[in-house]
Amino acid sequence: MGIRFCVKEAPEDEEQTATAIQAWWRGTLVRRALLHVALRACVIQRWWRRSLARQRERARRAALAPSARPAWAAVRLQAWVRAWRVRGRYRRLLHAVRIIQAYWRWHNCHACGFVQGRYELTANQLGVELEIILGSQICRITDRIPFQIKN
């Protein structure tokens, strides 16, 4: 067996250590309380500054209202006139587009035709039946052409 040393600390040192721990804990509590107070003060200050800013904005608007209303009315009137002019321009363009479309449709119908037909050949004549379609117009030609048979 080995030798054991048992060192006992003096009771004064234990009291000093306990006092130091208590002082640290109280300091922590005080710092926490001060932090909460500072945060609450910041919240109150933000609220107050926001309230003052709202009041200043209301006062500024109230001061500008008499001069702003005629300007606002002028802007509104200008917007109405501009919209009226744009609508007129749009109507004129739409009318021009319709004229161009009508001409183009008429031109397509009359320029591009469609021809179909059939024939029938017998001993002494040729039967021809033609349909010419130009747009909405249909022209039908039916004819029988006799053969000149020499005896």
Automatic annotation (TrEMBL):
The UniProt record lists the keyword Methyltransferase: no
Record flagged with keyword Repeat: yes
Keywords: Repeat
One matching Pfam family: IQ
Protein name (record): IQ motif containing F5
Record-level Gene Ontology MF annotations: calmodulin binding
